[in-house]
Every structure is written in structure tokens, then in C-alpha cells.
Amino acid sequence: MVFASSDNLHQAVVPLFLRADQSFAKGADLKADLAKLDEHYSALPAETRSRGVFHFAQYPPTDGSFLVTRLWDKHLPLWRNHHAGLRKPLVKDDEDRIVKEINRSAKEAVPIDPPTRIASDDADYILIKRKVYATKGKWKRFPPEVEQGCDCEP
């Protein structure tokens, strides 16, 4: 949906290829906006930041002065409903049921040889496991209780 580049050729030809449902962001503009976002989130209280970016930055700031916010508004317009709490949160029982089902599926999964291609229509489910770093640069990704119970790289 969004293509970003600092390459002069890309900037010159992107109008020829960009569809109405796509956006182009100049690399310098995106970089400046990301620095602005870093400054914005760095100003949050330490207690909030310690909860991890998945807690306080699931969505961009609602302030339309951020390029990232404007891109979300264009390409993911329902995000504001989620951000405003209009999305119904999971009930603890439902959350537990989902986690139990995922764990059951993972336990019963039959690995396939990595080069094997299988169509998603031919699979009952596809389980992809990833390890993530608990921190990225100066930012904690998860709150301490999640970090303690996850298979994260330090």
C-alpha cells in the first residue's frame, strides 16, 4: 500500500505506476516522521514505556501532523475505531480458549520439509513460528510479564 524510497529515479517514475489505493513516501520525509514518532513516544512516562511498544504504540498517534498517521488514515481507516476502544476486548475465557487451541495445534502439527510447497487451501492450518527480540534498539517490545513467559531473544 505504501512505497518509500529516497532514490531519485523511484521518485520520478512512481506517478506512472502508483494506483489510487497506493501511496508513495519520500524516504527523507518518512525518516523525519519516524524520528518525530520516536520523540513523541520517548516523551511518555517511563512506566508507560516499560510496558513495551505493543502496549502503547499499537496504532500511530491520532494527531494528523504525523505522516504515518495520515498513511494509516488512508490505507487502514478503521484503525481509529480500534484505537478509540470501539473494538470489543477479548473476554479472559475466550483468550484462554484461543491460547489452548493454538497450543494444541502446535503440539499436533506435522512439520513439512522447508522446500515443500503447499497451497493454503490444502492445509487445515499453517503454523509459522518466529522468535523475536524482546527489545529493538532502545524500545522494549513487551511488558515484563510477557517477556518472562515468552520464547524471546534478549
The biggest sheet amounts to: 2 strands, parallel
Radius of gyration: 20 Å
Beta-strand content:
5-15%
Question: Strand tally, please?
Answer: 4
Q: Structural class given helices, strands, pairing?
A: mainly alpha
- Calculate the terminal CA-CA distance, rounded to whole Å: 32 Å
Low-confidence stretches: none
Contiguous helical run count: 8
SSE ordering: EHEHHHHHHEEH
Helix fraction by DSSP (H/I, runs of at least 4): 40-55%
Q: Write down the overall geometry.
A: globular
How would you describe what is shown here?
- The protein is mostly helical.
- The chain is 46% helix and 8% strand.
- The protein has a domain at 2-107.
- Strand 1, helix 1 and strand 2 form a beta-alpha-beta unit.
- The longest helix is centred in the middle third of the chain and has 17 residues, at 92-108.
